[in-house]
Amino acid sequence: SSLSQIQCNPIVVEGVLYGTTSRSHVFAVDAATGRELWRFDPTEHGSAAQGHNRGVVYWSGPESAGKDDVKGRIMAASGQDLWALAGKTGQPVASFGRGGRVDLREGLGPEHKGGDVTSPTPGAIFEDLLILGSKVGESNGATPGDVRAFDLASGELRWHFRTIPEAGEFGSETWPSDARRV
Questions:
Q1: Which sign does the torsion angle of CA 115, 118, 124, 129 carry?
Q2: Distance (Å, rounded) from C-alpha 95 to C-alpha 69?
Q3: Fewest Cβ atoms closer than 10 Å to its Cβ: which of 38, 71, 121, 177?
Q4: E strands, the chain, in order
Q5: Burial of 171 (C-beta count, 10 Å sphere; 0-12/13-18/19+)
Q6: How far apart are CA 34 and CA 153, in angstroms?
Q7: Residue 167 pLDDT more than 90?
Q8: Rounded to a whole number, what is the distance in angstroms from the first to the last CA of the chain?
Q9: How far apart are CA 17 and CA 32, in angstroms?
């Protein structure tokens, strides 16, 4: 049985269709024949399946992909993890994050280390960055729904935009002083 509904908008790159299933599997099929080329199940690698996922994005990779790098990456999120998969094989790209994944809870502050944060959307690529929003809880103390940009080669967090600024940050005067706590 499926976990949820399919909300994936598949993409086609060089004759290969990439997408996600209702169980958060990432897949590649020959766009002309429908023959499956590979399938990646993030839950077999410790990720939680998420209720819905809207697809993947493709990055052609660095101009000169080195021996230890992989050109042509599929970026997909499942549960709290952001994955970089080799477009040809579906295997995690070892040089990205920790073994091909970045924990989306990292960088949000120690109080949110085990918080609930997922990304049902594939994000947007700009140059060498994946700009990603997130889905978070709405209760008191929930993880913040900040927008972040991750380096597509390494998985490093390159910038972080707080949707509710902290005291002293630009725009903070437009928010009540305790806005981040409610």
A1: positive
A2: 7
A3: 177
A4: 11-13, 16-20, 26-30, 36-40, 57-59, 73-78, 81-86, 101-103, 117-118, 124-126, 129-132, 135-136, 147-151, 157-161
A5: exposed
A6: 30
A7: no
A8: 38
A9: 9
Residue with tokens 């944060």: 117
Q: Read off the pLDDT of residues 31-63 as tens digits, 9 standing for 90 and up.
A: 999 999 999 999 888 777 666 677 899 999 766
> In angstroms, what is the C-alpha Rg of the chain?
17
- Cα distance between residue 123 and residue 26, in whole Å: 15
Q: How far is Cα of residue 159 from the mean position of the Cα atoms in its chain?
A: 15
**Are the beta carbons of 81 and 101 closer than 8 angstroms?**
yes
Mean pLDDT in residue range 69-97: 89
Whole-model pTM?
0.84
pLDDT one-digit tens code per residue, 13-36: 999 999 998 888 999 999 999 999
Q: What is the pLDDT of residue 143?
A: 66
Tokens of 133: 């929003």
For residue 125, what are the β-bridge partners? 130
pLDDT for position 113: 58
* Encoded tokens for 139: 């209760």
Three-state DSSP state, 69: coil
**Cβ-Cβ contacts under 8 Å for 46 (sequence gap 6 or more):** 81
Q: What is the pLDDT of residue 1?
A: 43
